[in-house]
Amino acid sequence: xxxxxxxxxxxxxxxxxxxxxxxxxxxxxxxxxxxxxxxxxxxxxxxxxxxxxxxxxxxxxxxxxxxxxxxxxxxxxxxxxxxxxxxxxxxxxxxxxxxxxxxxxxxxxxxxxxxxxxxxxxxxxxxxxxxxxxxxxxxxxxxxxxxxxxxxxxxxxxxxxxxxxxxxxxxxxxxxxxxxxxxxxxxxxxxxxxxxxxxxxxxxxxxxxxxxxxxxxxxxxxxxxxxxxxxxxxxxxxxxxxxxxxxxxxxxxxxxxxxxxxxxxxxxxxxxxxxxxxxxxxxxxxxxxxxxxxxxxxxxxxxxxxxxxxxxxxxxxxxxxxxxxxxxxxxxxxxxxxxxxxxxxxxxxxxxxxxxxxxxxxxxxxxxxxxxxxxxxxxxxxxxxxxxxxxxxxxxxxxxxxxxxxxxxxxxxxxxxxxxxxxxxxxxxxxxxxxxxxxxxxxxxxxxxxxxxxxxxxxxxxxxxxxxxxxxxxxxxxxxxxxxxxxxxxxxxxxxxxxxxxxxxxxxxxxxxxxxxxxxxxxxxxxxxxxxxxxxxxxxxxxxxxxxxxxxxxxxxxxxxxxxxxxxxxxxxxxxxxxxxxxxxxxx
Length: 588
Hints:
Layout: H1 2-6, H2 9-16, E1 20-25, E2 29-34, E3 41-44, E4 47-50, H3 70-87, H4 92-98, E5 106-107, H5 136-142, H6 149-162, E6 170-172, H7 174-177, E7 185-188, E8 191-192, E9 195-196, H8 204-221, E10 234-239, H9 245-258, E11 263-268, H10 269-276, E12 282-287, E13 292-298, E14 301-310, H11 314-327, H12 342-355, E15 365-371, E16 379-385, E17 437-440, E18 443-446, E19 461-462, H13 466-475, H14 480-487, E20 490-493, H15 502-513, E21 525-526, H16 535-546, E22 554-555, H17 556-562, E23 564-566, E24 583-585
Parallel strand pairs: 1-10, 10-11, 12-20, 14-19, 20-21
Antiparallel strand pairs: 1-2, 2-3, 4-6, 4-7, 5-16, 8-9, 11-22, 12-13, 13-14, 15-16, 17-18, 23-24
Helix pairs in contact: 10-16, 11-12, 13-15
């Protein structure tokens, strides 16, 4: 304790964070870095694997996508008009009837050099071939001066065949999103809408292997930690609130068994975010790329009944941006498809981050839109985008986003006997002991039997608006003193939290969503001390560094040998779901 009173924070980070890797996986991105770093590596959470031939579909889970129905289209138009009245802009039909002067659009491939900054935004195609170093010069210098012409020609032929381009077996991160559809690769996303992307088209074993390959690539290429040295490192896993218990178990197996870390501990994003901003009580609103969630924290302890999961996020705003521009006829006549062409979604995300904001009045911007078609160079089209304040308002009116076109993966895989949450009285196999059962006085019992509040963990994803979700979450605490404190301690995290004008919009909409009979008249969103997209990762780093006793950490050998079961020893103190049980090693 005396050491903690005198040590400088930067010194503590350097001493205890050099061998601590913090991993924060998400649906669209994964954030990994050493705890001593100021910020993590933010890498798209995807992998493209080479196929034997050009695939019919370039995205593994493409068949799960759906089309917008007529009813959904009508709901979307109604939502647009509601938002238009709030923002004091023209209604949807009013815009169409009054557009007598069409928007001017044109290719800008031949713009003057001094204005060529827009061209830098062009996303290049990924080079899918392995980089090979040619040894022709060394071989050429070793050839004797008296060597015959026939021998030289033979060597040249062998050289040319040896440097034939070879496809990379797999490509991770942003490079995977930039692969041309003409190349023999299929893109896979291991996590979709906050859950493992397991379906008939994407088996569980492939999901686990892909996740391992992505994380291993980042550790080697970004952090320069080879497999042979990982026994000297520990891992802090910051998991989303959407993860079920079995998904957490599989993540632990990847980190300890496959990636070979010596020890690991699990924290949840909501609580980690509170520590990342130096708070103790807050309503954490996490707006991710594909999922948003709300959960309340009181004095460093999560309140499980306040969790609400919303199945929409930043990528839905990007798709809505495309729909809005096409409806207003401001989008160039190019084939842009955010669902089946990952490079198009990458472009739309950048346009959203650069131009979308929330404020009253018409919001327009002149920008360059790019077209990416297989077999031809990318094209650039200068245009004027309009109604840029409408798509982010879809967070409060989700009908505008139509998240059903990108549904979550089916959850049927949880019906097997390895589910750690399943209530069953069947006598388990030997392997089931590590999958969630523990010995009792009369046989084996499910580990959750003594915790009825957690028998059916709420994993349903709601479609209510963000302001309604925040209000519902806070009011569910049932205590007026805590409710007042939480309404004045809202914390926005996730990449979408950087949207200009979002904080004031959340405050205004939440204040209007509070029922009139509630004695609450003040709301406030607290400013984040660090990048909202990285605050959970930073909180995980802080929790890992300050955890001197490491009572909750799991060792690799014990996890591989026998797993963990309920007992009186170690536990995940900071996971609201797992804190209901005390976890200890099976060393008997």
